[in-house]
């Protein structure tokens, strides 16, 4: 199986700052035929691991608000921005999930703001014009997309639910595929198309 680098949330605990990855992620990635390489929130180490590892791409996971939105994990912002630069230089596939998509939008100067009604295990959105049920666990979102990003999924209230880059293999989704049990066939297909298609 091919490996993908995957980022982790920061969990402050007393005098420690721990990196944490939901066990649902390895299960979901295994269902996609992928193995996770969990990278720490230490920029030079994360970059070295990606540079030396034989990885098919990068997964930016959810959790921790962006520092610009009041989040408390600036080291994670630094790592993920460095990894996005690394991936762009190599035209490496990237998928940003929830916070990961917000970071992609932030880099594209897309304004993000607080929203209501997007924390729910079931929400019907439009994906490529088709009604589709997904989950939602976010309090920040965008209502517009700017080049080089384009929208391919949107909620009824206008919240952008998925974006893709017009020239790089970069995709963002606002739902959590790892939290759907069993995994949705469309989510598995998305990850396989991104990371396993030559």
N-end to C-end Cα span: 14 Å
Radius of gyration: 16 Å
Tell me the number of structural domains.
1
- The named CATH superfamily: Class I glutamine amidotransferase (GATase) domain
Order of helices and strands: EEEHEHEHEHEEEEEEEH
What does this structure look like?
- With 198 residues, the protein is α/β, with parallel strands linked by helices.
- The chain has five helices and 13 strands.
Topology:
Blueprint: E1 2-6, E2 9-13, E3 16-20, H1 24-31, E4 34-38, H2 43-52, E5 55-60, H3 74-90, E6 94-97, H4 99-107, E7 113-114, E8 119-127, E9 130-137, E10 140-141, E11 149-155, E12 160-165, E13 170-173, H5 185-195
Helix pairs in contact: 2-3, 3-4
Question: What attributes characterize this protein structure?
Answer:
single chain, 198 residues, alpha/beta, Rossmann fold, nine-stranded mixed sheet, two-stranded antiparallel ribbon, 5 helices
Can I get a quick summary?
With 198 residues, the protein is an alpha/beta fold. The chain has helices at residues 24-31, 43-52, 74-90, 99-107, 185-195; strands at 2-6, 9-13, 16-20, 34-38, 55-60, 94-97, 113-114, 119-127, 130-137, 140-141, 149-155, 160-165, 170-173. The strands form 3 sheets. The protein has a 9-stranded mixed β-sheet, with helices on both faces. A two-stranded antiparallel ribbon has the order 2-3. The chain has a two-stranded antiparallel sheet with strand order 7-10.
